[in-house]
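Fill-in record for Organic solvent tolerance protein OstA.
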Amino acid sequence: MKKIFVLFLFISAAVFAQIPTQPQNPAVKDPFFNQTNQSQQEKVKLIHSDEFGIVKGKYDDNPFFHGNVRFSHQGSVLTADEVIFYREQNFVKAIGNVKLQNADGSIITSGEMEYDGNTQKGIARKNVLLTDPGQTIETETLYYDRLSNKAYFNTGGTIKKEGNVMFTKSATYDLNSRIIDFAGNVKIDNPEYIIEGVNIVQNQNTNTATFNGATTITNKKNPANLIYTEKGTYNMNSKEVYLKKNSRINYNGKILTGDDMYFNQITGFGTAKGNVTLRDPLEKRYMKGGYGEIYEKKDSAMMTEKPYAVKILEKDSMYFSADRILAYQKLDTVNPLKKKSFLRAYKKARMYKSNIQVRTDSLSFNETDGIMHLDGKPIAWSGEKQITGDKIEAYFDTENEFIDSLRVIGNAFAISKADSLNMKDEFNQVKGKLMTVYYEKNDVKLAKVIGNGQAITYADDQNEKTKEVERIGVSLSTCGTIEAEFEDRKVQIISCNIGANTDIYPMSLISREKRFFPDFNWNTKDRLRTWRDIFVDSPNYEEIKYESDDALYNAAQKAIDDERAKEEAKKPKRVRK
């Protein structure tokens, strides 16, 4: 019986020696197997093979196995068409339909594989596929360490998980924590978006990705909507991204930047903190502040913490500030295919433009139609003219970039310096219930008042001999409606209707008190003189002190008093007896 068994071994070895197996040379181990100190471990065990053989001088006299070969080592099972077992090194080479099934449920298949039982490391080559619950890794060469339970490749690979397809040059996968560390250029393809970066770490348990380099998340339906960061975290389940360095969010043609940002791709809600800027190139506007919020689906944004906005115009930009600024777009009711843009500023609103400056509690600006609403003690300045009222509506020519008119509702009051070249306290004043102020070439040209119209205007005339303009008096007008025309240095009443009454006083016969309405308030302290004045509650400029020229009136009063004294002196005096 023993002779028959020996004969069987001899015949099997002779037959198997004719099978063309690879490799033909002695084992040359990859440096990967020498990266850690080796110590004698449990031997790799043969479970089954259809055939095996030992050929003198071949494979360093180590056995090789063929047909349904199965080896096991510490809970892992290796199957292949052919296996060479280097006994002294506790090392195997598997060829053809190789499969390594591990105790944790992961499976590696490949065309070839080398496995070191001492270091418990393996290298799989040719059409490598690592299957882990819920995902697969495809590459040409995969390095696997059972002790650390990590897999690594640097020959380019594809990772697929729940609709996500990831492409990268190299990556390390920790099968315990299920964390993949991508190195080099990475691309993650999802049905809804594409992520491209240079260093991404993905946790397959939480389905979150950490970005440690330049990374872009692009919306597939609208590639113009994207997120860029150089450090951040992305939750692929909730579609929430947290951005920490050099980040920006592009949405609906707008760009949001900030030091610390958050965005939810499902709800379209985002926040930004620190050095926040929202640019809107289509509207030629940008907003800045310490904190901002965006609502992508509503196409709106809000800015706080010393916010300001700039409407960039070719000739003369507009500057806005307030405690809170809101920008949004709405569909045009006339043309649903178009949108209209709006800007709102709440509490301590300011607006600066070279030809008009505004202070008010709240401001609403229809940027598309060029209509601005001012509420809460509004005051507007244009040149040496000041306009106040309960509410003010300003109309701008958006195409030509100039102001067209103002509509003042309730307690309308327009004040104009009678002569801007001197420091006399002489002011033209027009007031009433409603007032419309018209501009010409960005300067106040005409004021129309409806209801309880009143005016105090200075009348000038040119001396025929000296050709100099001389002040001749003051006109006090009371009318139902008034039209007042503003010239360079004067205001002329061109229409006074409905219960009209006009009195003209020479300068010698009108006192200073009668030259001002009781609610007169020429404000030089709060007026915005530069665009930087929008950043303070009040520029608090030194009040301009004007001189009161009452010489003629005082002389006339003195003459009257002297004449009265003379008349009194002529009267007989009664003497008591």
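KEY FINDING: The first strand starts at residue 45 and ends at 48.
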